Amino acid sequence: LQQFKIIIVGAGFSGICMGIELLRQGITDFAVLEKAGSLGGTWRDNTYPGAECDIPSALYSYSFEHNHKWQYKWSGQQQILKYQHDTAAKYGVDQHIQFGREVKEAKFQSETSRWLINTSDGEQYSAQHIVTAVGQLHHPAIPKFAGDESFAGERFHSANWNHRAELVGKRVAVIGNAASAVQFIPEIAPEVARLVIFQRSANWIVPKVDRPYTRFEQWVSRTMPWITKIYRFNIWLVGEAIVLPAIRGNRLARWFLRVWGQWALKRAIKDKGLIAKLTPDYPIGAKRILFSDNYYPTLVRDNVHLETSSIQSFTRSGILRKDGVHEEFDMVIYATGFRTNPFLAPMQFYGPSGQSLADSWRGGAYAYLGIATSGFPNLHMMYGPNTNLGHTSIIIMIEAQAKYIVQSIIGLDNRSVETLEVKTAVEQNYNQEIQQRLQKLAFSEVDNSWYMDGGKITNNWAGGTREYRRRLSRVNWDAYSFTS
User: Fold this and answer.
1) How high is the mean pLDDT of the chain?
2) Which of 132, 146, 196, 463 lies in the 20 to 30 Å Cα band around 20?
3) Domains of the chain (ranges plus CATH)?
4) pTM across the whole model
5) Long-range Cβ contacts of 380-383 (<8 Å, 24+ apart)
6) Is the pLDDT of residue 449 over 90?
7) Could you give the CA distance from residue 14 to residue 293 in angstroms, rounded to a whole number?
8) Which has the closest alpha carbon to 229: 12, 466, 420, 61?
């Protein structure tokens, strides 16, 4: 049995940030349990061609760890992963990570006021606090189709890219056309013989205007970091002043983004029928806005076809559509996103009464500030329910959460008490407030978004990052109950 004051689950951006904040406050009695063999989270796992972040790197990075080595405005997977490794090593978090430790379950022991944690390989840990830092996008969602097991060709999800699969000269079907698809489709289209994209619904796509940083810009970034801070602030401001108002229903902001996206669409594509297929029938901001400079131009290639007819079934040699047309394929790639609900699955958490967190969240996940939930003392969540963003960098939220959780842990010690648990009424009132506000946003205007669980928006935050940081700037101790 290994004993620590704090166990962090996950070594992606959230887990690394949490470790750094603990070390900054002089807390070293913690371990980071990572199920994989290396750190990085989603940036370790997603290695498909063209994988990159949809937030500019100057903002999709820690505010306290500026990186002057970014090669592009929008960095790719390998650069982001290197940044994570470099940052974890610089601050010493890597020395606290135990790899190959997948948390299976955690049970709160009332007699000791500690969590007993079991991993899938049989290891046991005891900790006063658990911090979950496992993200929301790591379980690939693969839709089930009749006959798919009979398909003789290659099948894989973009998050589990098969780099051994030979693409050159192959007939490829891509199911889905959202965030990952718009990145890898332009990369593989020149290699394949034929590429058919099965689209369920169109997405709002606006230009990235990406380009490499010049050596001079990198020099300026290295020698005058204050300029980079201004640049970072300006990127943040665009999200808060244009995209967030669009999500809130501001007509001018929606008009601007819609015109920008339609300009890019009509500049690349002249076929009116194809333009109609690529024009969403829902308000901009209701689903995540996508950024791409090369997706639309790829769709006019002679070997690329956008198909809006639904799939009826797979056959041994291909796919049969619901309109009765059968087409043969050598490979099928699922670009169908991730299962974002239930939260924290497949891990199981059991509170003092034996109640499981999964049962508590049966009607949809919720948590006070996205961090704490009643019935589960000393369980802290990062990137928890209702903390996702549709307009700016999640790392802003992660940093605020790390500081808040450390503040909670230190405050608990200063009060000479063992546990803190958010009061049920406080959590319920908070959840009611957030859900009422979410119903007024664009997120509620569609019913097939990954933001939802059974019609309830469980993933997204209802406001801007300034408000969230303000609410997390100081712990409201009256919101919690304590045990000694």
Assistant:
1) 95
2) 463
3) 2-139+340-483 (3.50.50.60), 148-203+287-334 (3.50.50.60)
4) 0.94
5) 380/129, 380/130, 380/131, 380/132, 380/405, 380/408, 381/131, 381/132, 381/344, 382/14, 382/15, 382/17, 382/18, 382/131, 382/132, 382/133, 383/14, 383/133, 383/134, 383/135, 383/136
6) no
7) 29
8) 61
